[in-house]
Protein: DUF3108 domain-containing protein
Organism: Deinococcus psychrotolerans
Amino acid sequence: MRFENAPSCPVQRPQSPRPLVLRASAVCAGALGFLSVGSAFAGACDHPYFANAGTFTYRTTAAGQVITTTSTIKLSGNTVTVNGETSGQAYNVVYDCRGGQISIRAGSQQKTAMIMSSVPPASQWKNGFVWKSAATIGSMTSQTTNRIVGSEQVTTPAGTFQALKVQSSTSMDISKMFKGQKVPPEMAKSMKDVQTTAWYAKGVGVVKQVSPNSSLELIKVSR
């Protein structure tokens, strides 16, 4: 996933009533909604620029809706467990970090929902550093280029943080979902080079994130 800096789903409502198009839009929206907050916890499991211990509350604004998510994160060896609630719905996600990748299990049956690249070590997180990341969610894949462009002071309802500013460009491929059919041009176009900017505070994780269609900010943190 960037899913590493997850962008909001850029897909516009399709004009065609075809179930496959509607399903693709729904999967994209659901996956990237999950990633918006999930990216805050999906570091190398024990990484100073990613949240891995404590309770974090985020507010996401997208498509005219405001969603609040509260998550409690626990770190144990190569595993990060996240238990939380979004709009009254409880969820459980487990990040397992081994072999240079992160597998993400979710739901009551803890099936693998996503596989993504591991995050570069903190020693490389300096102004000008560039890295690429990839992710797979079912039949959907993504490729992202991330660049640290500086350090800024960022204020959110949770406080004021000195944070690294990371700009990301993500392209998604959902062609396999269409099983040989052509992806609608507007949908395909909207999934190319989606720009996201996120601010990472050391010892906290993502404190703010913006993309063309959504925004996310940390509103409360407790240890």
Observations:
- Residues 31 and 126 are 29 Å apart (CA to CA).
- The first strand starts at residue 54 and ends at 62.
- Residues 19-38 form the longest helix (20 residues).
